[in-house]
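INFO  loader      accepted 1 record
INFO  loader      residues=196
INFO  predictor   begin
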Amino acid sequence: MIKLIKEYWKVANRPSMHFSLGFLTLGGFIAGIIFWGGFNTALEVTNTEEFCIGCHEMENNVYEELQYTVHFSNGSGVRATCPDCHVPHKWTNKIARKMQASKEVWGKIFGTINTREKFEEKRLELAQHEWARLKANDSLECRNCHDFEYMDFTQQSPRAAVQHSTALAAGEKTCIDCHKGIAHRLPDMEGVEGWQ
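INFO  predictor   done
INFO  writer      dumping tokens
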């Protein structure tokens, strides 16, 4: 057994002595394609609503709330899923968001929000993290579907038209500044600075 391990080590340590450069290049290319394909497949699987609501914490809390909003069911039949609002579409931004989400996995493993009561206790903190993230990226996920440039203000309520045209002209605000709680119930906002 030890002799076999030594032989494998000899080959692995200096593969060019045992295999041609063409074979190693082709093998590396094929291995790269397999790795990249597997990585992207895994990434796309984690970018589905089914994956997101696979934990009862999400299915029984935020997903349940989403079902009663215009983002879930509306006259046009366009529906936003969890990744549409919580994962950027561009690859580099998506990878950065997936790395951030690894902290959420930590919370799942240790059960910090595994009951409705625990979820409600942390709801404000979780919401504030998400609002800060959206503020920092200028509501990138919102703008994947909604764009001031294509808004027809005449089709909006007078109040919305004024707010959107003012926000567009000023350029100071982003979607999440005014649309907190658009797809999920707001947490208890009592004592939150700047909340009216």
